[in-house]
Amino acid sequence: MNRRTLLGGLFAAASVPALSACAGGITSLDGEGGASGGGGSSKGGVTIGTANFTENQVLGHLYAAALTGAGVKATVRPNLGTREILIPALKGGDIDLLPEYQGALLHYLAPKATATEEGAMQNALTVALPAGLQVLPYGMAEDSDAFVVTRETARKYGLTSLADLKKQNGRLVVGAAPEVKKRQVGVVGLKEVYGVEFKEFKSLDSSGPLVKGALKKGDVDVANLFTTDTDIQANGWVVLTDPKNLIPGQHVVPLIADRKADATVRRALARLGNVLTTAQLTELNRQVDKDKKDPEDVATAYARRHGLLK
Amino acid sequence: MTIDWSWLGDHTDDLTTLTLSHLQAALTAVLLGLVISLPLAVVAHRIRPLRGLLLGLSNVLFTIPSIAVFVLLLPVSGLTRTTTVIGLTIYTLVVLLRNTVEGLDSVPARTKEAAKAMGTRPLRTLLTVELPLALPVIMAGVRIATVMSISLVSVATYIGDGGLGQLFTDGFQRNFPTPVIVGVVLTILLAVVADALLVALQYALTPWRRRRA
Amino acid sequence: MYELFKNLGTWLTSGAQWSGGDGIAHRLAEHLQYSLLATLIAAAIGLPLGLLIGHTGKGAFVAINLASFGRALPTVGLVVLVFLASGLSMWPVYIALVALAVPAIVTNTYAGMTAVDPDVKDAARGQGMRGHQVLRQVELPLALPLIMTGLRLALIQVVATATIAAYVSFGGLGRYVFDGLAQRDLVQVLGGAVLVAVVAVVLDVALAGLQRFLFRHRTA
C-alpha cells in the first residue's frame, strides 16, 4: 500500500502544458462534438475529474482502475469542485470523464425534468446533454441525496417525511453544500414540491465534516447528506421520506466527452457498472473516510478482486 | 491530534510529487512576475505620473482575496496549472514592482551622471550600472515574493490544483490531521529552503558588497 | 467580461442583495467583526512583544525572522488544522488571522524601535529618565510611524484573508466567494472580492488618517 496513491492524479495537473485549456476550449467546439456515440478515441489517455467529496473520488479511481484494466491510460484529478465547476471543465477539455449521478445530473441540465424512472431519466439525459457530451449506461450502485434530522429533532417536530417540514416553515435551519441552495434537488425543489420554507440556509459541505458537525452540534436542524454515508446509521439519524419523489433515482452514471468515448472505454465502464453495488460502494467510502485508506488503493483492490484489473 | 507515521511512510512518493508541483507553481509565478515587473518598474521609475498609478494599482490587487482571483480566472484558463500560475503571478507583482522601483530609486544620481559623462548609453547604464546597484533591494523583493507564493499556492486547492494544499482539503474532508500537519510543515520548509537559497544567490551575484563588509 | 461587470453593478445595487441574513449589510458586518477583532488581538500580542524586543535588544533574531515565517505559514492549512483540533467554532478563523497579523506587527514595531537614534536614547537617560520612561516618552513616539505601517499592513492582509471564514461554515464577505465558486456564479465571486477590496482600502485610509492625527497631536 504505497507509491502512487491517493494524489497520484495530481501530477497530471502539474504537467498540463500551459494554455492547454484555451486550446481545448476551442477544439471541443469543432465538428466531432455533435456525433454522439462514435468517433471518439481513448488512445491519448483519459483524464477523470472528480468532485469535492470522498465517494466521487472513490468512483473516479474505480473508473481509472477499470480503464487501466482495459489498457487505457487513465489519470484522476481529485477534488476539483462541484458539478457546476466540473461540467464546464468537461466541455472545455480540462477533463474527459466524470462519475455522475443520474437524477442530480438531469436536474442540473434540465431543472424542469419530470422523469424519475431510471430508463426514462437516461433518455431524458441524452436529450438534455449539450453537444459533445454523452452519458454511458448507468451502473447498479446508487447514492441519493437525503435530508436528514437527528432523532431528537424528528421527535420534537414530528418529522418523518419531507412533507412534514412545511408545518415548521420559518422555524428550521437547513445545512447543505452551497450549490444546494440553488438546486432543484435542494432548496428550490423543496419549496416548489413540498412548500417548505426554511428559516435559514447554511452553506456547508457535501456530506462532509461541516454539515455533519453542524447537525451534531444543533447548528442546523436539517442536513443534506448522501445515502451512502455510513455516519447516518452510526449516529441514528433519521432520513426524511420523499412521498412526492422530489429526489430522483441516483444511479452512478459515467458522463464522458464524445472525443474519448470509444468502444474500449464503454465496455470497461459498463463492466464496472454491472459489478459495483450500492453496499460495496458504501463500504469503499467507509474505508476511505474512517480507515483513512487512499481512494486509489481502495479502488484498485476492489477492481483486482472483481477481475476488472489484473 | 496525533500523527499517523505509517501514512507518512506510505506516501513519500506522493509527497515528493506534490512538493515538486507546489514548487513549480511558485517559482514559475516569481519568474513571470520578474519578467513583467522589470520593464514596468523601469517605466514607473522614469515617468513619475505612471509611478503612482502602477504602484497604487498593484496595492489594490493585494487587497483582493486570492481565492477570488483563482475563481475569476476559470472562464479564461479553466481548471489548469495556468490558472494557478496567473493568480500567483498577480500577487508577486505587488512586491516585485514596488521593490524594483525602490531599488532603482536607491541608485545615487551621481553614479548615473558619471556613467552618462563617460558616454555610456542609457540602456547600457540601466543594465550595467543601475540594475546591479538596485539588486539588493530587488532581491529582497524576490525573497518576499517567493516565500509568499509558496504559501499561497495551497489556496489553489479550491480549484483542484494547489500542490501541497491538496493535503489540506483531503485531511479536512476525512477528519484526518496527518496530511494537514505534513502539508503545513513541508510548505514552511520549502519556504525556508527557498529563502536560504536566494540569500546565497544574492551573495554570489553581488561580490562588491562582500569586499566592503 | 463586460457582461460580468454589468451584472456586478446590478448585484451591488439591488436592494434585496443588501438585506437579510445573506445580505451584503450583514456579511459586511461579520467581515468587519472578524477582521477588526483579529487585528486587535494581534496588536495586543504583537505590539508589546515588538516594543520589548526593540527596547531590550533581546530576541532581535526572532523579530527579524518572524515576518518571513508569518509569510510562509499557509493559512488554509492552519485553518484546517485548528478546525480538526477544535471542531466547528470560530477558533480556526481567529487563530489563523491572528497568526497572519502578529508577525507584521512585531517586525515593524521592532524596526521602528531600532530606527530610534541611540544618541537620543542616551540623552534621555542622561536626563535621568528611567527605562520605561525612555520607552514611553522617547522611543514609542519616534517609532510610531513604522508601528502604524505594521498595523496597516496587518489589517489589509487580515481583511483579505478573513474570506477563509466561509470555508469553515462561517460568514463574512467570503461567503459570496465560496458560494459563488460552488454555484459557479462569477458575479457573486466578483462582488465579494470587490467588497473585500473596498473594505481593505477604506480601513487603510482610515488608519492613515488616524496616524496623521496622532502625529499632529504629538507635535502640537
Automatic annotation (TrEMBL), chain A:
<dbReference type="GO" id="GO:0043190">
    <property type="term" value="C:ATP-binding cassette (ABC) transporter complex"/>
</dbReference>
<dbReference type="Pfam" id="PF04069">
    <property type="entry name" value="OpuAC"/>
</dbReference>
<dbReference type="GO" id="GO:0022857">
    <property type="term" value="F:transmembrane transporter activity"/>
</dbReference>
<keyword id="KW-0732">Signal</keyword>
<feature type="signal peptide">
    <location>
        <begin position="1"/>
        <end position="20"/>
    </location>
</feature>
<dbReference type="InterPro" id="IPR007210">
    <property type="entry name" value="ABC_Gly_betaine_transp_sub-bd"/>
</dbReference>
<protein>
    <submittedName>
        <fullName>ABC transporter substrate-binding protein</fullName>
    </submittedName>
</protein>
<feature type="domain" description="ABC-type glycine betaine transport system substrate-binding">
    <location>
        <begin position="46"/>
        <end position="303"/>
    </location>
</feature>
TrEMBL record, chain B:
<dbReference type="GO" id="GO:0055085">
    <property type="term" value="P:transmembrane transport"/>
</dbReference>
<keyword id="KW-1133">Transmembrane helix</keyword>
<dbReference type="InterPro" id="IPR000515">
    <property type="entry name" value="MetI-like"/>
</dbReference>
<keyword id="KW-0812">Transmembrane</keyword>
<dbReference type="InterPro" id="IPR035906">
    <property type="entry name" value="MetI-like_sf"/>
</dbReference>
<feature type="transmembrane region" description="Helical">
    <location>
        <begin position="180"/>
        <end position="205"/>
    </location>
</feature>
<dbReference type="GO" id="GO:0005886">
    <property type="term" value="C:plasma membrane"/>
</dbReference>
<comment type="similarity">
    <text>Belongs to the binding-protein-dependent transport system permease family.</text>
</comment>
<feature type="transmembrane region" description="Helical">
    <location>
        <begin position="53"/>
        <end position="73"/>
    </location>
</feature>
<dbReference type="InterPro" id="IPR051204">
    <property type="entry name" value="ABC_transp_perm/SBD"/>
</dbReference>
<keyword id="KW-0813">Transport</keyword>
<keyword id="KW-0472">Membrane</keyword>
<feature type="transmembrane region" description="Helical">
    <location>
        <begin position="133"/>
        <end position="160"/>
    </location>
</feature>
<feature type="transmembrane region" description="Helical">
    <location>
        <begin position="20"/>
        <end position="41"/>
    </location>
</feature>
<dbReference type="GO" id="GO:0031460">
    <property type="term" value="P:glycine betaine transport"/>
</dbReference>
From TrEMBL, chain C:
<dbReference type="InterPro" id="IPR035906">
    <property type="entry name" value="MetI-like_sf"/>
</dbReference>
<feature type="transmembrane region" description="Helical">
    <location>
        <begin position="142"/>
        <end position="169"/>
    </location>
</feature>
<comment type="similarity">
    <text>Belongs to the binding-protein-dependent transport system permease family.</text>
</comment>
<keyword id="KW-0472">Membrane</keyword>
<protein>
    <submittedName>
        <fullName>ABC transporter permease</fullName>
    </submittedName>
</protein>
<feature type="transmembrane region" description="Helical">
    <location>
        <begin position="60"/>
        <end position="85"/>
    </location>
</feature>
<dbReference type="Pfam" id="PF00528">
    <property type="entry name" value="BPD_transp_1"/>
</dbReference>
<keyword id="KW-0812">Transmembrane</keyword>
<keyword id="KW-1133">Transmembrane helix</keyword>
<dbReference type="GO" id="GO:0031460">
    <property type="term" value="P:glycine betaine transport"/>
</dbReference>
<keyword id="KW-0813">Transport</keyword>
<feature type="transmembrane region" description="Helical">
    <location>
        <begin position="91"/>
        <end position="111"/>
    </location>
</feature>
<dbReference type="InterPro" id="IPR051204">
    <property type="entry name" value="ABC_transp_perm/SBD"/>
</dbReference>
<dbReference type="GO" id="GO:0005886">
    <property type="term" value="C:plasma membrane"/>
</dbReference>
<dbReference type="InterPro" id="IPR000515">
    <property type="entry name" value="MetI-like"/>
</dbReference>
